[in-house]
Design brief:
The chain is α/β, with parallel strands linked by helices. Helices cover 23% and strands 17% of the residues.
Length: 357
């Protein structure tokens, strides 16, 4: 990370919001985080969109993967939860359902019964070589076993897409690509497909945005703790109807994937390569189509930002959301999946602030 302390941005404002109509979606590490956040605070969310993500606590599928717990979680994440040798060696949804139920009984997440009437959009591109389609299918089975109604779940594995959030932008990668910035042109905005599934009766996206993107100080929500591996700033899109007219809003949380945060840089020998920064760090919150459909439907979009870290305390050089335990205080007992997890707690605090709590 740069040694300079960045200037403070304004604090996150509050609006007239119906927090009971909140939802969340994400790509890749953002999809894994979506599942974790959804289960941790299921009483708050009406649904979730999972694009190329695995099931809850996936990184603990095989606890005996290494002699050291931290190494075992990492190996699970890299192999069983992303590229299992065969589908049978991937995550076991029945085991993870049992773990989720026990986590709820322990009071670390909301009761899983809240999920029964939620809406789920789960997607895997048939050309995805980063997170295998069999893993994403496990996410579908996991939610089914937890009692989500089948008619509330849209599972799509038919599109020949690579590892990406699909857009209608001609400058984005070809549909079957598996490379940064992990935004692929498929002729439609997947973000809008997600929101149209999660909410009934949405209006068509705005052709011209009425509102604005607002930068805010994200550090207060994780208490400036470097363990969070989160950026100084994050962003919201606020339609004019919400900002100036005070109309009651819904909130959707959009979680980027690895390498997609605004502050992403490559790390070389543990140091950020600031002279060769990537040029696409703002595209997830400006060009993915969320803002256009939010603008037409009195919806605020919250874009939290993870940031790469590679030092003696935190190894997260690609700026991924934590779904295997890198942010835990105790590597032997990681809490990345619970309400107490530093990233989950930070995002939930942002959501509460937006709603005036």
């Amino acid at each position: 990370m740069p040694s300079e302390t960045p200037p403070k941005a304004p604090p996150l404002p509050s609006f007239s919001v119906d927090l009971t109509q909140s939802s969340v979606s994400g790509l890749s590490s953002g999809a894994f985080m979506t599942v974790q956040l959804h289960l941790a605070h299921s009483a708050t969310f009406v649904g979730a969109g999972v694009v190329a993500g695995g099931p809850y606590r996936c990184a603990e599928t095989f606890r005996g993967a290494a002699a050291i717990t931290e190494d075992a979680w990492t190996l699970n994440a890299l192999y069983m939860c992303m590229n299992p040798l065969i589908p049978q060696s991937g995550p076991d949804p029945a085991k993870l359902v049992r773990m989720a139920r026990q986590t709820a009984r322990d009071g670390l997440i909301d009761p899983v019964e809240n999920l029964a009437d939620d809406k789920l959009y789960i997607f895997t591109g048939s050309a995805d070589s980063v997170v295998e389609s069999s893993v994403v299918d496990t996410t579908r089975r996991f939610y089914e076993m937890l009692g989500v109604r089948p008619d509330n779940m849209l599972f799509d594995d038919r599109v020949p897409a690579g590892h990406s959030l699909i857009t209608d932008n001609p400058e984005d990668n070809p549909l079957d690509a598996n490379r940064p910035p992990y935004l692929n042109n498929g002729g439609f905005f997947q973000s809008q497909t997600i929101l149209n599934h999660l909410y009934d009766g949405l209006k068509k996206p705005s052709e011209r945005l009425s509102g604005r993107i607002v930068r805010f100080d994200q550090t207060e929500f994780f208490d400036s703790d470097p363990r969070a591996s989160m950026s100084p700033y994050a962003y919201i899109y606020v339609p004019e109807s919400v900002q100036k007219k005070g109309k009651a809003a819904r909130i959707h949380i959009a979680l980027h994937g690895c390498t997609q945060g605004y502050a992403f840089v490559n790390f070389v020998n543990g140091q950020p390569d600031l002279q060769n920064s990537v040029p696409y760090g703002n595209r997830y919150f400006t060009t993915t189509g969320y803002n256009e459909i939010a603008d037409a439907n009195d919806m605020i979009v919250l874009y939290p930002q993870a940031q790469g870290t590679d030092d003696g305390k935190v190894q997260n050089p690609e700026g991924c959301w934590d779904w295997w335990g890198y942010s835990a205080k105790n590597a032997e007992a990681p809490d990345y999946y619970s309400k107490n997890a530093i990233q989950i707690n930070a995002i939930y605090r942002m959501l509460q602030r937006l709603g005036g709590q």
